[in-house]
Amino acid sequence: MLSILRLVLILSTGIFISAAVADNRVRFHCVDGQEFTISFLPAHDTQLARLVFAGSGQTITLKNQLMARGLFYAGEGWEYHEWQGKITLVDTRSTPPKEIACSRN
Fold this sequence. Notes:
By secondary structure, this protein is α+β, with helices and mostly antiparallel strands. The chain contains one helix and eight strands, in the order αββββββββ.
């Protein structure tokens, strides 16, 4: 039997993912001037998202990392974190990884 806390965490994660998937494509602007778009795949496959930087034709595929709270997608040297309205893009190719604060356009 699931504990109440565990059930709440599972349901909250589902709500965050559902909201992101419903929008499908979200545009962002970061404090360092970068702009990017994330496209969340249809509701039946919430495991992947595609990130494209403005002016770039390169698509970066991110995989959902299934966090207890918020959204966390990672792949190809990048991470996308979203929790309580705070959005962070992380360039994990850098040493140390570079965290970039972003907001929805």
